[in-house]
Amino acid sequence: MRYIRYAFLAAIAVVLITLALANRDMVTLNLLPAELAQLVGVGYALTVPLFSVIFAAVVAGLLIGFFWEWMREGKHRAAARDNRLAKDRLAREISKLKTAKAKSEGDEVLALLER
Hints:
Layout: H1 2-22, E1 26-30, H2 34-40, E2 45-49, H3 50-72, H4 74-105, H5 108-114
Antiparallel strand pairs: 1-2
Helix pairs in contact: 4-5
């Protein structure tokens, strides 16, 4: 299984390196369209290789997807936490009841064995 994972990661690395080498041309990214930048007075532009734009878009998409999924599963995590707390509360209650029953019967040896 380890070798399959390494082979898969190597294949992804080859694809990413090939993509980067094929898209080395410089592109200009503008914060706003030219007309809007003149109107607002903010004309920020950045010149970067095209592959960095592609990689940044993939990473941003992954981060947005992970965050979206984390937010969506919040109700499941809350339900699991509530169930765990209820289980712990019931376990403590059972332990108290066993101890109380053993004390009421008066046999301290059995009370120690049930713990």
